[in-house]
Amino acid sequence: MSIASRSGHASTARDLVKRLIKTNEFTALQMVYDAALDSFLPQIGDVITDLIIESKNSAADIFKQIEESVERVSHMSKYMGNSTKLAAVKNEYRQLQGRLNIANYFEIKDVESQAQKILESFQALFREVNENRAYFELREIAEAALKDFRSDESDLKKPLASLEDDLKAADAELEKLEKTYPPDREEQYIKKNVVIKGKVEVVEQKVEASVSWRKQKVFLFLKSIIGCLFALLVVMVITCIFLFMKMEISIVTYMVIAIFLLFTPLYGTIGGEVFYYNVEMKRKKFIEKIDKFTKMIEIKRPRVEEDIQKLKEIYAASISEKSKLSKDSSMQILEASIKGNFEQIKRFLT
């Protein structure tokens, strides 16, 4: 009795053949060319026809899912990092659509397989777009919070920034003064308060040895100039008085003038000392200013930092409320945004 006539085993054999062909497509060719199965060729043909229909239906279902994925991804294209990737997958899908009506089993299986790969590509794109959308939405929340935070932080820092500017100005004035009128000192390393990135820090600086400007020739020259100018002024005053009073200039007048001129070195010494005193008072004033501003900054900075920390907590709470993330995560997002490291936000989306 032939296999075809055994109706009791036909259904089982049909299912077996279908499973074999599904497992290995080339089994169909082996069956067709196997002489022992010649009497079962009609049933094999029916099985292959069924498989073609199943594959077409499966491919059609996949195509439908692809269409839905294309629509979803296209609506969110602004969140796509690489638009060429979407165009490439779309082009691949269009080329595949024309092959759906092929009646060849092997080709329709290839269409089904390719469609599944394209669907997976679209699904991967959709996941990527969703991740990007979540990132950009969270980034928008963080940037909005950062903008308001910067504004409020600036207001909190204004008094401190003003003191730091005053410290810089006083330090610059002292440095300028000491270049022109150096003090008497040996080479040494001194600790100096400087503003670095908005913070007053104590740094060690090398100070070159210098001779007091009072001991240099420039001071002697200065005294000479002051003495001569003062003596000249006295002579001019006496002369003007005589001319104004219309008095006759006598030998006594010349003697008085000569006596005044003899005291020219004294005038220079007195004038030089007065000038020296003024310079040193300026130096002392600048040093006192620097000490004063430094102490004020040291007192004010912890308060400002405490206020800024409270401000961060307020904006972290705002981010947490809008993003539904924990307060700790929101604080880290705010800190990353302050540093400009927006890419770090992505790790809170996993």
Task: Kindly describe this structure.
The chain folds into 2 domains: 134 residues, no CATH class; 176 residues. It is 75% helix and 5% strand. The protein is built from 9 helices and 2 strands. A hairpin with a 2-residue loop joins strand 1 and strand 2. It is rod-shaped.
**Could you give the distance between the termini?**
65 Å
Q: Sheet bearing the most strands, described?
A: 2 strands, antiparallel
Q: How would the global form be characterised?
A: rod-shaped
* β-strand number: 2
Strand order of the largest sheet: 1-2
* Radius of gyration (Å): 48 Å
Low-confidence stretches: 1-8
* Average pLDDT score: 76
Helix percentage: over 70%
What's the number of domains?
2
Distinct helical segment count:
9
